[in-house]
Amino acid sequence: MRTVNLSSGSKGNCTYIESSQARVLIDDGLSYINLKQRLSQIGVEPSSIDAILLTHEHTDHLGGINSFLKKNKNAKVYIPAFAKDFCISSIMELPQSQIVWFTTSDFFIKDITISCFVLPHDSKFCVGYSLYFSQRKVSIATDLGYISDDIINCLAGSNILYLESNHDEHLLMKNPKYPMKTKKRILSNKGHLSNNACAHALARLIPSGVVQVVLSHLSEENNTPNLAYSTIKSILQDYGIVEGKNVFVDVAYQNKIGTIFNL
Ligand SMILES: [Zn+2]
Ligand SMILES: [Zn+2]
């Protein structure tokens, strides 16, 4: 299995995962030119992508999918069937013959088994995914206001975990550009996961076998890669978990591809 984040943050999200037979994107919020350029850095042609798994309808996750599907007729986008009820215009505009409305939480794309779980977020629907291949598990959970016990159970044992570490609460509260309404939305149970919340969730997940974490969907306004990393490292230390020994913490970026993991 090989995985790499191609872009992460409020301006566009996309993560690439491949097995021996399948090539999958989680979300595509990038322009086609941008996506193509980033895929070329890992030697992947867009036409070889089998599927895009959509997490939710926000533009930073969905914005590139229409043009991708129109240029790559063999690719499919996987969307949970219950999302159909909301008649979301940006989804209804996608080429309908290329949508797979999946009805069960577990399904397959070639040799990858996929498991889908619901996340609390201020969208019509929002899900995370775990992908299994050859006794390896890669999970992704971004755009969630809090982590429930159910979500912890879904993420447990992931070899690689892309987990949201969106903001530092103090930077967010001090940010003069954000109206109070927006701050409350981000901090709410249907907003985004803070560095602190991410760290405490990781302290529960690392004993389950999670060894590689990629901090994801960092706010460019209310966070920095260094701040997210140092906050998480320090909170984990309070739990007796040492970064670089018990767990490895990496960061996903908005403007460049992240670390390529082979597992
Ligand atoms: Zn987002
Ligand atoms: Zn969102």
Give structural notes:
With 263 residues, the chain is an alpha/beta fold. It has a single domain (2-262), classed as Ribonuclease Z/Hydroxyacylglutathione hydrolase-like (Metallo-beta-lactamase, Chain A), CATH 3.60.15. The protein is 27% helix and 25% strand. A 7-stranded mixed β-sheet has the order 6-5-4-3-2-1-14, covered by helices on one side. Helix 8 packs across helix 9. The protein starts with a strand and ends with a strand. The mean pLDDT is 98. The protein binds zinc ion (ZN) (2 copies). One zinc ion binds at residues 56, 58, 121, 123, 143. One zinc ion is lined by residues 10, 13, 58, 60-61, 143, 217.
Separation, N- and C-terminal Cα atoms: 5 Å
Counting helices, strands and paired strands, the structural category is alpha/beta
The succession of helices and strands, N to C, reads EEEHEHHEHEEEEEHEHHHEHEE
What would you give as the CATH superfamily? Ribonuclease Z/Hydroxyacylglutathione hydrolase-like
**How would you sum up the major sheet?**
7 strands, mixed
Small molecules in complex: zinc ion
Low-confidence stretches: none
> Structurally, how many domains make up the residues?
1
